[in-house]
Write a structure and sequence with these properties.
The chain has 248 residues and is an alpha/beta fold. It has helices at residues 8-24, 39-50, 70-76, 88-96, 104-115, 135-144, 159-163, 209-215, 226-246; strands at 2-4, 31-33, 124-128, 148-152, 168-171, 189-192, 196-199, 202-204, 218-219. It has 2 domains: 2-81, Rossmann fold (3-Layer(aba) Sandwich); 104-227, NAD(P)-binding Rossmann-like Domain (Rossmann fold, 3-Layer(aba) Sandwich). It is built from 9 helices and 9 strands. Strands 4-3-5-6-9 form a 5-stranded parallel sheet, sandwiched between helices. It binds nicotinamide-adenine-dinucleotide.
Length: 248
């Protein structure tokens, strides 16, 4: 795990991933680099780890400081060690449905859906948010399960009319309590990916939970819903990467 700079949220995420590794018996190593690290220095570290046989998975915690091009960093990680599944090779594989790794947050959402016995086939699925990390791969995974998928974003018109048609609604917007109760179809499955800190010790999701839980058939809480699943899926990808790298 590589962390560049002092972003407090990123430090918490890296620490949680480290604890999860310890818990399941994966050796993890952290490279805590100063904020002024150059892009060349960071890429050179990644290349060293790419070539290190003892390393199965490499993760660079995003965001990186502004002077570093995050896509250049993603591109530098060997696809077979890319446990975040952000490398274009892995993104392309997700499009075709023949993938080794799935980005951890959408993978965690699918695991919640599967474990809850929810059938996606033929359902109207609405994903609010189109980021490369969450929204787009989320939509693709629901499509692979034969959902009828709509992706909404900041330029979508009449958003509430669309979300109200969703049997499965995934919110990945990054705006606290953005999805109100009256934007949800009665009985819908509501999955809240958002993590928004609104006070030093208060996290809320992208869904107004109190109103939404009265209308939804099933809903994930924040904190405690999708977040822990994301880390579990990172562990799963890492074990898979170890298996793939052992076969080389
Ligand atoms: P992002 O900022 O990259 O993307 C946000 C998306 O929301 C954009 O595609 C944008 O078009 C859309 N959006 C913004 N305003 C909108 C509006 N008014 N109407 C409709 N769509 C709108 O964010 P991201 O990285 O996808 O993360 C989204 C949220 O999920 C954040 O709260 C983030 O903290 C959280 N997150 C959680 C986990 C987890 O492990 N649970 C992982 C990644 C991200």
């Amino acid at each position: 795990m590589i962390l560049v700079g002092e972003d407090p949220a990123s430090k918490v995420y890296v620490n949680n991933k480290k604890k999860a590794c310890e818990y399941i018996g994966i050796n993890s190593y952290e490279y805590l680099l100063p904020a002024e690290t150059s892009q060349e220095e960071l890429i050179s570290l990644i290349e060293k780890l790419n070539n290190d046989e003892r390393v199965s998975g490499i993760l660079c915690q995003l965001p990186v400081p502004d002077h570093i091009d995050d896509q250049a960093i993603i591109n530098a990680i060997a696809p077979e060690k890319d446990v975040d599944a952000f490398h274009p090779v892995n993104v392309g594989k997700i499009m075709t449905g023949n993938f080794d790794f799935v980005p951890c947050t959408p993978a965690g959402v699918m695991e919640l859906i599967n474990e809850s016995g929810i059938d996606v086939c033929g359902k109207d699925c609405v994903v609010v948010g189109r980021s490369n990390i969450v929204g787009k791969p989320m939509a693709m995974l629901l499509l692979h399960r034969s959902g009828t998928v709509t992706i909404c974003h900041s330029k979508t018109r009449e958003l509430a009319e669309i979300t109200r048609k969703a049997d499965i609604l995934v919110a990945a917007v990054g705006i606290p309590e953005f999805i109100k109760g009256d934007m949800i179809k009665p009985g819908a499955v509501v999955i809240d990916v958002g993590i928004n800190r609104i006070a030093p010790k208060k996290l809320v999701g992208d869904v107004e939970f109190e109103a939404a839980e009265k209308i939804a058939g099933a809903i994930t809480p924040v904190p405690g819903g999708v977040g822990p699943m994301t880390i579990a899926m990172l562990m799963k990808n890492t074990v898979k990467a170890a298996q793939i790298n052992a076969q080389k």
